[in-house]
Specification:
By secondary structure, the chain is mainly α. It has five helices and no strands.
């Protein structure tokens, strides 16, 4: 009888090779799992979110949807130009650029 020195061999000896193989697979899956301590991805910018909404509108396929999506894309471009990350920033920076308050605005 030989002496078992490796932990995996000991598990296989005590509980059977099928259990040892299952345990090894579970450990491998755990090692491949995403790191929950990692920093979560940043949320999309306001302009990115607006562009995604424009794509969703455009996906409806009608001419009206395409025209509306173009207008929504214009708002996204304005957000990028103004470097606005919130509706309040967009409204305030639009007012400064145009010299007049925006009617309704994004924040309302």
């Amino acid at each position: 009888m030989s002496i078992v020195t490796e932990p995996d061999d000991l598990i296989g000896f005590l509980f059977g090779t099928a259990f040892a193989a299952g345990l090894a697979a579970a450990e491998a899956a755990r090692d491949d799992a995403p790191d929950h301590d990692a920093t979560p991805p940043a949320p999309p910018s306001m302009a990115d979110w607006i562009e995604a909404e424009a794509r969703a509108i455009r996906s409806k396929g009608s001419e009206l949807a395409w025209r509306l999506a173009e207008r929504v894309d214009e708002v996204a471009r304005e957000c990028r130009f103004l470097r606005a990350e919130t509706p309040d920033q967009f409204d305030a920076r639009s007012e400064v650029m145009m010299g007049v308050p925006s009617p309704g605005g994004l924040a309302s």
